[in-house]
Each structure stands twice: as structure tokens, then as C-alpha cells.
Amino acid sequence: MKFSNQLTVWYLHNKRDLPWRATKNPYYIWLSEIILQQTRVDQGMAYYFKFVEQFPSIFDLAAASEETVLKLWQGLGYYSRARNLHFSAKYVVNELQGEFPSKYKELLNLKGVGDYTASAIASICFNEPTAVVDGNVYRVLSRYFGIDTPINSSNGIKEFKQLAQALINTKIPGTHNQAVMEFGATVCKPQNADCNNCPLNNSCVALSKSIIKTLPVKEKKLKIRKRYFNYLVIKTKNKTTQLVKREKGIWLNMYQFPLVETDKPINQQELIEHSTFNELVDFNTVTIKLHTKSVKPHKLSHQHIYTKFWIIETPNSLKFRHSWSDIKKYPVPVLIDNFLNEFNYN
DNA sequence: GATTCGTGGAT
DNA sequence: TATCCAAGAAT
């Protein structure tokens, strides 16, 4: 209880003034928690405001199209969050009469809500004593108690959840949970932990052993896949182009130009021999220009995508019906959006 | 249980 | 430049 009390006192004096801390409305807490999954407060803040403004209630969110939701989510990444958010909004409205689930176990039934998010909503909104375990909690607990169990091992996940649950203040679980996370985010940081100003620096195991920098322990390194994209940017006299919806993998249900993907970089000759190219246009009647001067990888967490944008002018206007002036209405990945911002169609 | 889902800031 | 990794979840 000492651990919780000290952090809670610290929290009440040092917490940041964040918009979602002014409410206990489960819809808003849910929204903020989804936005903040694997995302820094600084990055997610603008999106929280956008969503609250455009969808003031869960009914508004449920009534929107997935495309609208994805468009608003554009740029934030991990787009399954947006698709699941929208799906779950419809579920709550249509199956639960708009009444948001109020128990940890029920919250887990929502797509996109796992152990962390269910615990956060249940504790903050409904005072249920379920401990959150996010990246901050792993770090704080591993250091304070000197635990070197890998946080991404199945044993580590169990061990830290159990410990966090044992530490929770059942009177004020929501405040307790947020206190540990806020402390991890602003004091017990990944790098340059501010141990001099730490309210727990007289009882921290890792500090006493000078092993702060070795904790938490994480096993395995992720492998980066290299991919080579060639986007076919159709240009016509009627200022139209062609967009296609992605149907699997990354950026699911978002839009892009017709894609030729290869396992290594290709030149124009290799491009026009590709079936995707020939199904789209007749190479005898088009002019092709390589827009991309130097190919820099678009770096994702698990892949580096090397992309060439090919500008293809065709006399055939009828086949391509996406007006260029409407192109900003479609949800697109940052890779495409960056191109749209630098490319002059005229 | 390992992999795959984005993007951008910090170092 | 390379690496880490952020209020994780689904497959």
C-alpha cells in the first residue's frame, strides 16, 4: 500500500492536465484509450479532439461509415484500431442499446479492447479494481522491484499482471492505475529516468543496484521485411486517376494507386512487362515518367517499403473515374499522402 | 507463442 | 544513421 500511496500523492500534485481526465464518460475514456495504444500523448491529442468534435456520442460514431472513420484516423497508424473502434461502436449501439459495458469481463468482448484497455475503462469509469499493465507499468514495476523477467515472455506477462493486481488500491483503482502510468511516462522514463526527483528513490531496487538502464528486460528482436512498391499514378486529360482499396495486410481498407510489388527494385522496362501494368494501360499509347528522384524507405515497425511513383499519362480518360480534385477525400496511408502533397498534377 | 499490425519523437 | 519504443490487440 505504501507503493500506491506514494505514487498517488505524487500523481495528484504532478499529473498533466489532459482532456480525457476531465470526464468519466466511458465513451470518451474508451476513445482516448484506443487512440493512446502504442501512441504518445503528443501524437494522439489532436486526434482525440477531432473525434470528440465529429462524433460527440457513440451514436454519432456508429452512424458514420468506416471510410469516414478511417479518414479521420489517417496519419495515426495501426488502422485496425479505427476499424475496430467503429465496429464496436455499432455493436454497443445495435446490440446493447447504446449502453456501454461497465464490467472488465464485458469490456473484453469489444473488438480492439484487450486486457489493458478493459482494465483502464473498468477502473477509471466504474471503479472496478483491475490493474492496468502497459509499457509504463512494466518499466516501473521491473525497476522498483528489480524484476528481470522478460516483459514480453508469457511468464513475464503473467508475473507483472499479478504483481500489478496485488499492488492496486481498491478504493481508488482508476487514480492508482493512472498514477503508475503517469509516473512511468514522465519520471521513470525509458531513457534518462529522473531518479533524482523520484518519490520512490529511497526504496527502488534497481536504483540501489544501479541497474536502472538494464530494466525492463525484453527478449527477441524484430525482423524487418524489405518490400518494393511501384505505384501507377494515372493521369488523364480529364484530370482523373485510378485508386484501389487495399484488401489485405497493412493499411486494410485504405486507398492507394494501382500497385506493382516486386521482391527487388525494378526499372521502367521491367515495369511495363508486368501484368498489372498491362491490364491497366496499353504501353504503346502512354507516356511514363518516374516521379521519385531518390527512393527512401517508408519505415514501418516491421517493414521498410521502397517506393517508386510512376506517372502514366494516358489518352484514355473514360476508364479512370476518380477525379483528382476528390482525391483528398479518401483515407490513404502516410506514404500516399506525402506523395499527394508534393506532386503537382498539372 | 511468434508475428503483424504505423507513425514519429528521442537519442 | 540506427535503434528504441510509445496508455496493445489480433491472429
Automatic annotation (TrEMBL):
Give the cofactors, semicolon-separated: [4Fe-4S] cluster
Coiled-coil stretches are none
Catalytic activity of the protein: Hydrolyzes free adenine bases from 7,8-dihydro-8-oxoguanine:adenine mismatched double-stranded DNA, leaving an apurinic site
Q: What binding details are noted for the cofactor?
A: Binds 1 [4Fe-4S] cluster.
Q: What is its EC number?
A: 3.2.2.31
Q: Which InterPro entries match?
A: A/G_AdeGlyc_MutY, DNA_glycosylase, HhH-GPD_domain, HhH_base_excis_C, HhH_motif, MIG/MutY, MutY_C, NUDIX_hydrolase-like_dom_sf
Entry GO MF terms: 4 iron, 4 sulfur cluster binding; 8-oxo-7,8-dihydroguanine DNA N-glycosylase activity; adenine/guanine mispair binding; metal ion binding; oxidized purine DNA binding; purine-specific mismatch base pair DNA N-glycosylase activity
The record's SUPFAM superfamilies line, in alphabetical order, gives: DNA-glycosylase, Nudix
Kindly indicate whether the keyword Metal-binding belongs to this entry.
Answer: yes
GO biological process, any = base-excision repair
Please give the Pfam families that the UniProt record associates with this protein. HHH, HhH-GPD
- Superkingdom of origin: Bacteria
Which keywords are on file for this protein? 4Fe-4S, DNA damage, DNA repair, Glycosidase, Hydrolase, Iron, Iron-sulfur, Metal-binding
- According to the entry, every stretch annotated as the HhH-GPD domain falls at 35-186
> What family is this protein classified in?
Belongs to the Nth/MutY family.
Its biological purpose is as follows: Adenine glycosylase active on G-A mispairs. MutY also corrects error-prone DNA synthesis past GO lesions which are due to the oxidatively damaged form of guanine: 7,8-dihydro-8-oxoguanine (8-oxo-dGTP).
- Identification of the protein by name: Adenine DNA glycosylase
Provenance organism: Gramella jeungdoensis
